[in-house]
Design brief:
The complex is a heterodimer of chains A (364) and B (302). Chain A is of the alpha/beta class and 364 residues long. Chain A has an eight-stranded mixed β-sheet with strand order 6-7-8-3-9-10-12-11, with helices on both faces. Chain B is 76% helix and 0% strand. Chain B starts with a helix and ends with a helix. The chains are: A alpha/beta (364), B mainly alpha (302).
C-alpha cells in the first residue's frame, strides 16, 4: 500500500506548545490516499482531522504547532523537512485545499476575479487578459452563471454556496493531484450542501484528482468516500472500505458513532449517544483514549494503545481493501446491533488505580 | 451567519458607497460630517485656486496701508507692513496643506512598512521594532518634534521632517495591530494553501486590508500635522518670515494684539477651523466604516 499511494502519512505525531502545556493533537496517524481515490476522514471536533491536513500542507500554525515525528510522503517524497520553497511550489499546484467556511476564506476587499487569478499567478507566468479568461472559465466550470461579470464583484455579493463554488474553482484551477476538503459543506445551507458536494466529487473524478474529504458527517461519507478512516483523540481507530465500515464496524468507537446517527427507517428508535466526553489532549495519552467511554474495554486498554492492524475475515464488498482497527477487544458482528458486549459475564475492566485518579469521570 | 456577513461588509465598504454617491451618503449621515466636508473643501479650494484668484500679493508690502482694519479693499485688514491678510491666509493654506500631506505621506508608508514587517515576521523583529516605537511614545510628541526641529535647524523642511519622525510610530502600531488580526484570518491561510508567497500575501491581503484604516488615520492626522507645523513655526522653529505660514504670521502679530485685533485673530481662526475640519473628517470616517455605527446613524435619519 505504502509504495503505490499518492499520499502516505506514516505515524504522524503533532504537538502544540501552549502556555497551558503541550497539546497532543495527533498521536501517530497513518493514512494512505491512492491516486484518484476518495478517502474520508471522520471524527468529532478536536480529533485531529484538520491538524492532520494542515500538517500535510506544511501549514501548522507556527511556532506553536510542530510535527514531532512521522513521515508525510507525497509521491514518494517526505514533505516533512522539505524546504519551504519546494512546499510552496507544491501547494495549490499538486495539493490544494478547500476550507469549511467560504465566508472567511475569501478576502472581503478583493474582487473574485483577482482572487481566482491569484493561484494562477502564484505558479505560472500569465498575462492579465489570459488570467482573466482562465478565471472566467474556471467559474463556468463550477456552475457560476455570467462568469465574466462575476469577476469584478466582491465576495459579499455572493451567496455562501456560490462562494464555496469559487473556492472549489480556485482549488482545482491547476488540476492538483490531491485535494483536501476540510468540512467543505458544513457551513452551507442544507439545500445546497448536496449540490456543492456533487460538484466537488464530480470535478475531482473528472480531473483524476484524489480527494481527502474531512467531515464529521457520516451521511456525506457514505455517499462519496471509497474508504473511510475514523479518528478519535489524535489516533486513527479504524479504517475500511465504506461499505465494509458501515456493514461491519469492529471498533467500539465506530459502533458508537454509527449508533448516534439517525436513520430514516429507524423512526421512533432512540439515538444512542456515546457516554462521556473526549479526553483532555493536554494529558499525554496513556493506553487507548477511548477506554474511559468504552463498554468493551479490557485491562490492557488502560495501559497500552493497540496498533492499527488487519481485522476480520475479509471485506463485505469484495473490494480487497484492508479492514484495520486499533482495538484490543473488537466488537463482534452480533454485538453491533445491540451496541453492547454480549459475551456472558463480560464486565468492562476497571481503571488501574493510577488511571482512576487521573481521569475524573472514572468507570462508566 | 448573519454576523459573518456583517464582518465581511465591515472590511469592504459596499461598492455603491464609492464615488460622489458615497460622499453624499457620508455628508447626509451627520451634520458634523457635512461641516467637516465643507471646511476641508474650502481649505483645499483656497490652496488650489485661491492664489490664482487673488493674485500673488501675499508678500506685497504697502507702506501706505499699514495695520488697516477690515475694509472693502482689504477684507481681512492688513498687517504691520501693509500686506493683505486675506492674500496671506489663502497663500498659507497651500503651505499648510502641502506640509500636512508631506508629513502623512512620509510617516504613513514608512510606519506601515515597519508595522506590517513586525506583524508578519513576529518574534524578535517584532519585539525590537515595537520597543523602538515605545521610545517615541515615551516622549510627548510635540516636545520631541520641537527638539528634533531645533537640532536640525529652523526651516519649514526640517519641521516637516521632525513631525513626520514623531508620527510614524503611530502608523507602525496601527498597521501591526491590523496585521496581527489579519494573519489569523482564513483567507490568508487559503492564500498560503494556493501557494502564494509571503510577499504576495503582504501586497494582496495585508496592504489592501490595512489601507482604508490607514487612510482614515491619515486624514485625522492631517489636522494635527497642520497644527504642529503652525505651532513650531510660531515658536520660530518652522517657516521663517516673510513666509505666509499661519503660525509664523501669528508670531509676528503678537505685538499688535492691542492695536490690530484682526492681525492675530484671522490667521488664528483659520487655523482653528482647518484643524477642526480635518479632525471631524477623521472621526466621521472612522465611524463611517464601522457598519454597526453606520446602521445607527442611518436608522436615526429614517
Amino acid at each position: 500500500m505504502t509504495g503505490e499511494a499518492l499520499l502516505s502519512v506514516r505515524d504522524l505525531v503533532v504537538r502544540f506548545d501552549t502556555p497551558q502545556g503541550e497539546v497532543h493533537a495527533v498521536n501517530g496517524v497513518s493514512l494512505d490516499v491512492g491516486a484518484g481515490e476518495t478517502v474520508g476522514l471522520v471524527g468529532e471536533s478536536g480529533s485531529g482531522k484538520s491538524v492532520t491536513s494542515l500538517a500535510v500542507m506544511g501549514l501548522l500554525p507556527a511556532p506553536a504547532g510542530r510535527v514531532a515525528s512521522g513521515q508525510i510522503l507525497f509521491d514518494g517524497t517526505d514533505l516533512i523537512g522539505s524546504p519551504e520553497r519546494d512546499l510552496r511550489r507544491l501547494r495549490g499546484k499538486d495539493i490544494s485545499m478547500v476550507f469549511q467556511d467560504p465566508m472567511s476564506s475569501l478576502n472581503p476587499v478583493i474582487t473574485i476575479g483577482e482572487q481566482v487569478t491569484e493561484i494562477l499567478r502564484a505558479h505560472e507566468q500569465v498575462g492579465k487578459a489570459d488570467a482573466r479568461a482562465r478565471a472566467a472559465d474556471l467559474l463556468r466550470q463550477v456552475g457560476i452563471p455570467n462568469a465574466e461579470d462575476q469577476l469584478v464583484r466582491f465576495p459579499h455579493q455572493f451567496s455562501g454556496g456560490m462562494r464555496q463554488r469559487v473556492m472549489i474553482a480556485m482549488a482545482l484551477a491547476l488540476h492538483p493531484r490531491l485535494l483536501i476538503a476540510d468540512e467543505p459543506t458544513t457551513a452551507l445551507d442544507v439545500t445546497i450542501q448536496a449540490q456543492v458536494l456533487e460538484l466537488l466529487v464530480g470535478l475531482t473524478r473528472d480531473l483524476g484528482t484524489a480527494l481527502l474529504l474531512i467531515s464529521h458527517d457520516l451521511g456525506i461519507m457514505a455517499r462519496v468516500a471509497r474508504r473511510i478512516a475514523v479518528m478519535y483523540a489524535g489516533f486513527v481507530m479504524e479504517t475500511a472500505s465504506t461499505v465494509e465500515l458501515f456493514a461491519n464496524p469492529r471498533h467500539p468507537y465506530t459502533v458508537g458513532l454509527l449508533n448516534s446517527v439517525p436513520a430514516i427507517d429507524d423512526r421512533g428508535k432512540a439515538l444512542r449517544p456515546i457516554e462521556g466526553a473526549p479526553p483532555d489532549l493536554e494529558e499525554p495519552p496513556v493506553g487507548c483514549p477511548f477506554a474511559p467511554r468504552c463498554a468493551w474495554r479490557v485491562s490492557s486498554c488502560w495501559t497500552e494503545m493497540p496498533p492499527l492492524r488487519p481485522i476480520g475475515e475479509g471485506t463485505a464488498d469484495g473490494s480487497g481493501l484492508e479492514h484495520e482497527a486499533a482495538c484490543h477487544n473488537p466488537v463482534t458482528a452480533e454485538e453491533v446491533r445491540g451496541a453492547a458486549p454480549l459475551r456472558p459475564g463480560f464486565v468492562p475492566a476497571p481503571p488501574p488505580a493510577a488511571a482512576a485518579t487521573a481521569s475524573p469521570e472514572g468507570p462508566a | 451567519m448573519m454576523e459573518e456577513a456583517v464582518v465581511s461588509a465591515a472590511a469592504a465598504p459596499p461598492k455603491a458607497a464609492s464615488g460622489w454617491r458615497g460622499v453624499w451618503a457620508f455628508v447626509r449621515a451627520s451634520w458634523l460630517n457635512a461641516l467637516a466636508v465643507a471646511i476641508v473643501t474650502i481649505v483645499v479650494l483656497m490652496a488650489l485656486v485661491g492664489p490664482l484668484l487673488l493674485g500673488n500679493k501675499a508678500n506685497a508690502a504697502d507702506f501706505s496701508a499699514i495695520l488697516q482694519g477690515p475694509s472693502a479693499s482689504h477684507w481681512l485688514g492688513t498687517d504691520n507692513v501693509g500686506r493683505d491678510l486675506l492674500a496671506r491666509i489663502v497663500a498659507g493654506a497651500r503651505i499648510s496643506l502641502a506640509s500636512a500631506a508631506l508629513i502623512v505621506l512620509l510617516a504613513a508608508p514608512f510606519g506601515c512598512a515597519l508595522g506590517i514587517l513586525a506583524g508578519m515576521v513576529g518574534g524578535w523583529v517584532d519585539e525590537v521594532l515595537m520597543r523602538f516605537t515605545d521610545l517615541f511614545f515615551a516622549f510627548p510628541a510635540f516636545v520631541l518634534a520641537a527638539a528634533i526641529a531645533a537640532t536640525l535647524g529652523p526651516s519649514l523642511e526640517h519641521t516637516i521632517l521632525a513631525v513626520a519622525i514623531v508620527y510614524w510610530p503611530w502608523y507602525a502600531r496601527l498597521a501591526r495591530s491590523q496585521v496581527l488580526t489579519l494573519r489569523e484570518r482564513e483567507f490568508v491561510l487559503a492564500a498560503r494553501v494556493s501557494g502564494s508567497s509571503t510577499g504576495g500575501i503582504v501586497v494582496r491581503h495585508m496592504v489592501r486590508n490595512v489601507l482604508p484604516i490607514v487612510a482614515i488615520q491619515m486624514s485625522a492626522d492631517a489636522g494635527n500635522a497642520i497644527l504642529s507645523i503652525s505651532a513650531l513655526s510660531f515658536l520660530g522653529l518652522g517657516a521663517q518670515p516673510p513666509t505666509p505660514e499661519w503660525g509664523t504670521m501669528m508670531a509676528g502679530a503678537q505685538d499688535y494684539l492691542q492695536t490690530a485685533w484682526w492681525f492675530l485673530t484671522f490667521p488664528g481662526l483659520t487655523l482653528t477651523f482647518t484643524v477642526l475640519g480635518f479632525n471631524l473628517l477623521g472621526d466621521g470616517l472612522r465611524d463611517w466604516i464601522d457598519p454597526r455605527l453606520r446602521g445607527v446613524l442611518r436608522g436615526g435619519r429614517v
